[in-house]
Structures are given as C-alpha cells and as structure tokens.
Design goal:
The protein is an alpha/beta fold and 361 residues long. 51% of the residues lie in helices and 9% in strands. It has a six-stranded parallel beta sheet, with helices on both faces.
Length: 361
C-alpha cells in the first residue's frame, strides 16, 4: 500500500493513543489490598477492576452504557468450499438481527446494550431493514486465495465505517464497546490473518468454523496455506495483511478498536474473528493493546493461539464459538460485578476487622 494512500485515506491512524492512568491504577491497587478479603482472593475480578479504573481514569469504575457494533459482510473465499454453510446465511442473519431473534440480540437486551448492525456487503441483496445501517461496499470480498480480498479503496471504506460508528458511540458517552461480526467464511480469513501476524502454522491455526469435518478441514488448511504463499511478499505490513487476507467486517472491527483506544474507550473483545482483528490493530498501533479486554476463549482452536500472542487472559471459557459479539456480551456481568465489588466492599478500617483482630490476639 502506498504512503500516499495511507496519508490521504488512513491518516487518522496516526492520531496518538493515550496511556491509561497510572495514578488511578495505583490507587485502585491500594484499595484492593484494603478490602475485607485476603489479597488476590477475587482473582481476575480484582485485576479487572484495577484495569478499568486506569482505563476510565476514575477511582470508581463503572460499566453502564454499552454499545455493540456488529459488522456483517461476505467473503469471496467461500467459493473454495471452506464453509459448511452457504453465503446466503449472512444475509439471513442480518435479517434475524433486525428482527431481534439472534443470540446477540437477546444478550444485548439482557445487559442493556445498544446493538448497532452495519451491513458492509452481502452476496444476497438485502432490502432496507429497520435497525440495520446499510453501508454496502461490494457484494462481499474477492477470493483471498486467488487475489487480494480488498482493493485499497474497499479497505479504506471498511475501516472508515468502523471509525465512524465508534465516533458516534463515543458521542453518546459510551463506557464500553463490544465488536461483533457476521460473515460466512470469516474464520478462514481470520485464520490466514492469524498465521500471517503470529508466524503460526496453518495446521494449528485453522479450525472447523461452522462445523467442517476432517476432509473439509484439511482442504480449508490447504486454502489458507495457498493464500499465505500467494501474498507472502506483503505480509510484513499489517495493513496489507488486513487488505489481502481480511474481510470488510474484520477491517471495520480493526478500525473500531484503534479509534476506541484513541478516544479512551475500553473495548471488550469477543472470539476468534474479533481477536484476529485485535491482532491486526495491535500490530498497526501497539498501544491499542492496553485498551482491550477479552471476554472469552472460543472453542475455535486458533483463538487460544491469538490470545497467547496478545498475552491476554480471557474471562470465560464456555466452549462458545458463535461470534456476533456473543461471548463478549456474556462476560459483561463479570465486568459489572468487578466494579461493584471494588466500589462497594468495605475496607478493613471501615469494618473494624483489623481492630477486632488486634483485640483477639
């Protein structure tokens, strides 16, 4: 990708990313040690509260207003036979999101989150749908095993969509963003990205996705390896990795994560696809990593490899592999509990526990 294109269309990527507040992190750490519990006894919930205090620059972190940004798009690589489902499912699921019948629709309602669905390009045409933003770039990407998945203009359009939706959420005062995706074939794209940016073997990274059996899985691995061979000379550049191996929805998620970090908004990562986008985002802007939280570990085998690459510990491991932002949504109550425990538990001094201990000695 030429420097001129980067400067003109993706110049916003150069905006600085703030560092979380170390002062609030230190104070939160001190408070955790003063709460009426043995130090470390609440495990990850303690560190989660400390991180949120630093990210939000507050002594009393909260997770109240949440927006889920769900981007949908199809993938040209599906013609290679890498999915157990046809591409028409992508459009059907967008309609399901609009009707409120999908898992993420139910989760969003339960956790009180705003669900924003953006159609970036399905193979099956869609009529206007209430509750769905139509920003079609093309009827899916090109076949990444034969050519770059996106043109430069398409990549920039997809990233612009993610940036714009993040900015709109920021304007509402959102305290947490979740990224969701829908796109038949996107586990192939995510696996290719994962291999390219972590130097992992395709046999380890590629998983069953929508439920491929042994022979089909072997073929999917071959397709990913073919794509890696085809684009090998360009895989040193994470933006080119995204353009050549990604998808519209993965590019939008990548941009959303970067823009969220630039605007001091914590981003809760979902499963394999979203984590592949996170790997790209961190490769482009390493400081993004501090603003990412990880909701769950997917049953897709490559997800754990990506989490390890990012030195991330997921909050949940429930064997989920649905996507849509569902695993991240399920983890939201843990974030809220971590905040409530941090803010509302008594300290030893308040509870006079230390005093009672001294008198009993």
């Amino acid at each position: 990708m030429t420097p001129a294109v980067l400067a003109q269309q993706l110049g916003w990527l150069q905006a600085p990313i703030p560092v979380p507040s170390d002062a609030h992190r230190q104070r939160a750490t001190v408070r955790q040690d003063q709460l009426t519990k043995p130090p470390g006894s609440l495990g990850q919930l303690e560190q989660l509260a400390i991180n949120l205090a630093a990210l939000q620059s507050t002594d009393q972190p909260t997770i109240d207003q949440i927006t889920i940004l769900l981007f949908a798009a199809d993938h040209g690589v599906v013609v290679e036979g890498v999915s157990a489902f046809p591409q028409s499912v992508t459009a059907a699921m967008v309609q399901n999101f609009a009707r409120g019948g999908a898992a993420i629709s139910v989760i969003a309602e339960q956790i009180g989150a705003e669900l924003t669905v953006v159609n970036l390009g399905t193979v099956t045409p869609l009529s206007p749908l209430a509750g769905v933003i139509n920003q079609t770039i093309a009827a899916g990407t090109a076949n990444l095993a034969q050519e770059p998945a996106m043109t430069v203009d398409q990549l920039c359009a997809a990233m612009a969509a993610g940036k714009a939706q993040t900015e709109q959420a920021a304007d509402t005062g959102v305290s947490l963003l979740i990224g969701g995706e829908m796109g038949i074939g996107n586990t192939t794209a995510a696996a290719a990205i994962g291999c390219a940016l972590t130097d992992c073997d395709a046999q380890l990274m590629v998983g069953p996705g929508t439920g491929l059996e042994t022979d089909s899985l072997r073929h999917k691995i071959e397709v990913v390896q073919r794509a890696l061979n085809l684009h090998h000379d360009y895989l040193h550049d994470p933006v080119e990795v995204l353009r050549r191996l990604g998808g519209f929805e993965i590019a939008a998620l990548t941009a959303a994560m970067i823009r969220a970090a630039q605007q001091r908004i914590p981003f809760l990562i979902d499963g394999f696809i979203a984590t592949a986008a996170a790997v790209v985002a961190v490769a482009i802007k390493p400081r993004v990593r501090a603003w990412l939280l990880f909701g769950h570990c997917s049953a897709e085998p490559g997800h754990r490899l990506l989490l390890n690459h990012l030195k991330a510990t997921a909050l949940l491991d429930l064997g989920m592999r649905l996507g849509e932002g569902s695993g991240a949504g399920v983890a939201v109550p843990l974030l809220r509990l971590a905040c409530a425990l941090h803010n509302n538990m008594a300290t030893f001094e308040m509870a006079q526990v230390a005093d009672r201990i001294e008198k009993s000695e």
